[in-house]
Amino acid sequence: MNLFTKQTATLALAAGMGFAAVSSAWSAESLQDVMKRRGLSQQDLLAASKTYVPTGKRDEFVAFSSGGQSGQVIVYGIPSMRILKYIGVFTPEPWQGYGFDEESKEVLKGGRIDGKDITWGDTHHPALSETNGKYDGQFLFINDKANPRLAVIDLRDFETKQIVVNPIFKSEHGGAFVTPNTDYVIEASQYATPFANKKFVPLERFNEEYRGGVTYWKFDRKEGKIDVKKSFTLELPPYSQDLSDAGKLASDGWSFTNSFCTERYVGGIEKGRPPYEAGCSAKDTDYMHVINWKKAAELVAAGKAKKVNGMDVIPMDVSIKEGILFLIPEPKSPHGVDVTPDGKFITVAGKLDTHVSVYSFEKIMAAIKAGKFEGKDPYGIPVISMQDTLHKQVQLGLGPLHTQYDSKKCVAYTSLYVDSQVAKWDYCEGKVLDKISIHYNIGHLMTMEGDTVDPKGHYLVALNKLAIDRFNPVGPLHPQNHQLIDISNDKMQLLYDMPIPLGEPHYVVAIDAKMLKPGIRYKVGTNSRTDKPSAGAVRAGEEHTDKKAGKVEVFGTLIRSHITPETIEATVGDEITIHLTNLERAEDETHGFTVSTYNVHASAEPGKTVTVKFKADKEGVYPYYCTEFCSALHLEMQGYLLVKPKGYKEVKVA
Ligand code: K7E
Fold it and tell me: What is the DSSP string of 81-138?
């Protein structure tokens, strides 16, 4: 039937019946026909019409998702859920030449630890730069949990520009979260290790010598880089510090970091001890760290920090004495800590508690001001009582993890991991408004600009750990499932399932698409990773090859449909450096470049200069070519690298 309809259309065309006849032949299949044929309900149709972005049209929001174990960032549109780009961050990404050209290798080099290249990352939390607590569309930050690193992505070209390594931690999880003007990017450690990365300290010395911390990376917006010299860390007890958030508006200047395993339990010391998960959840409460980061920055400026591994570290006793560090009990094994848009409340969700706890910043400040503490922790940090600071505790369901906010006042959404649900609730009144099932085991959730001072509402994305039966089976390893939910009405409506095929997505942030203004071309001859003119750039007609003992350096160009030079001559053992400038001015006229068998690849967008470097370690003839189908003569866009044996004598060919 379906086939027949299509054939009618084709026949109509063949018979020269013209466009009108063709389209009427197509529309012979009515909406009802399609619904029947595909088994769609009215509800499906409504959902489809809310997500479908007609061909050639664009999305309302652009989302930046963590790529989990892929070490990358995934960019997609909302509501269509169309994937727009992968951004190579901690992991080489060949399409962009990331990790295969010299410019990007320099970026990845910044992520070396103990002289080792670390070519993967466990990305968790992307954070968009903010101005006055609103997304400004300029930069994106993302952390690597496994190796304590942070990356900076410039949203003018969606490229990773910098990776910094935390010199104090061995792992981290409470990053990246920005302060309201992106003065600092917050990164809290996860598993306590010997303080300041000291080498071996036995587990028996855990309480005394192991430590956690929170680093405040100073961001230099003008340079678009983290200024490591102006960054600092607060030394913290060996609790497993976890998620963090920066205060905003009412609570600007403060930040909040959760922790679990304040039992300071270490497994494996003696036989017969309970396993980690039991030992680490023995107590009813853990601690939220409340930190005055503005004052901490002043203390550092006043010289009250000490340099550890090149970074300013504020010792715990200094933080206590200066009154910048406090603890508040929170229900055991908490996970997310999320400040409300007005900055007045802090929502903490505990994995092992069915409630979310809403703390009042005003009450916290009142307790600090009055010096009203219920005691001290074993390290002498003042503990403010939970009762004195709670605004509400609301029972939501099993395994609450993360919370995001709506454009509607007092409305929040919290993920329920164990229940596989999203709860919509009112944090002012403390009541549940609606619940929706997701598929399955939700971690984070995200509303449009929902962690800023000005959430946009409309949509919510549930980031689910399991997909199980939602997609066509592709083997024992399943994709993850991002589910789009309409939150514009009282009842939430599930709209769409998007498989994420790269890694566990953890967190995602979405910005109004109008706020992003990426460039179309670079100034000719730009090294995109440094944003400076490349030393390897040349103009058309200036192409040349320099030869020195053991070295061949090519200054070439790319333009449809030609690589200059067409041949590169070398002697076996030479170090070959090839700089190529894309001379195109037209939008989307990217050229790629590779040389057979030398494991190099570059993507040269219009104006960009890229460099590949390798040792011509084997004599032979190696084709090189443009890897982007750029024109009708694309296949002719090629050349030869001629690697001659040592002492080779030219043979005259008659
Ligand atoms: Cu809940 Cu790393 Cu934020 Cu995963 S984290 S879910």
Answer: --EEEEEESSS-BGGGTBTTSHHHHHHHHTT-BTTB------EEEEEEEEETTEEEEE
Q: Tell me if 167 CB under 6 Å of ligand 1.
A: no
Ligand 1 atom at minimum distance from 243 CA? 3
DSSP per-residue codes, 408-457: STTEEEEEETTTTEEEEEETTTTEEEEEEE-SS-EEEEEEETTTSSS--E
Domain shared by 531 and 465, yes or no: no
CA of 463 to the centre of ligand 1 (A): 10
317, part of any domain: yes
Ligand 1 centroid, distance to 68 Cα (angstroms): 10
**Nearest atom, ligand 1, residue 335 CA:** 1
Atom of ligand 1 nearest to the CA of 145: 2
Q: How many domains does the chain have?
A: 3
349 C-alpha to ligand 1 centroid (Å): 12
Burial environment of residue 258 by CB neighbours within 10 A (0 to 12, 13 to 18, 19 or more):
buried
Whether residues 9 and 65 share a domain: the answer is no
Residue 507 CA: which ligand 1 atom is closest?
A: 3
Q: Is 417 part of any domain?
A: yes
* Mutation pick for ligand 1 pocket among 404, 442, 444 (CB with most ligand atoms within 8 Å): 444
pLDDT tens per residue across span 220-251:
999 999 999 999 999 999 999 999 999 999 99
Residue 654, domain member (yes or no): no
Range of the domain at 563: 526-644
For a substitution probing ligand 1, which of 243, 465, 480 has the most ligand atoms within 8 Å of its CB? 243
Amino acid letter, residue 586 = A
Of 238, 239, 221, nearest in space to 230 by CA: 221
CATH of the domain at 577: 2.60.40.420
Torsions phi, psi of 71, nearest 5? 70, 20
Residues 26 and 150 in one domain: no
- Does ligand 1 lie within 6 Å of residue 124's CB atom? yes
The CB of 329 under 6 Å from ligand 1? The reply is no
| pLDDT digits 0-9 by tens, 313-346 | 999 999 999 999 999 999 999 999 999 999 999 9
Mean pLDDT, residues 570-576 taken together: 98
Interface confidence, given as ipTM, is: 0.96
Q: Are residues 490 and 565 in the same domain?
A: no
| 32 and 74 together in one domain | no
Verify whether ligand 1 is closer than 6 Å to residue 177 (CB atom): no
- Which of 441, 420, 415, 254 shows the shortest CA–CA distance to 336? 415
Break the chain down into helix, strand, coil percent, rounded to 5: 15, 45, 40
List the residue whose alpha carbon is closest to atom 4 of ligand 1: 506
Alpha helix locations (H) across 456-545?
none
Q: Does the beta carbon of 506 sit less than 6 angstroms from any atom of ligand 1?
A: yes
CA-506 nearest atom, ligand 1: 4
Contact, 591 vs 561, CB < 8 A? no
What pLDDT is attached to residue 26? 55
Kindly report the protein residue whose alpha carbon is nearest to atom 5 of ligand 1: 506
Residues 365 and 448 in one domain: yes
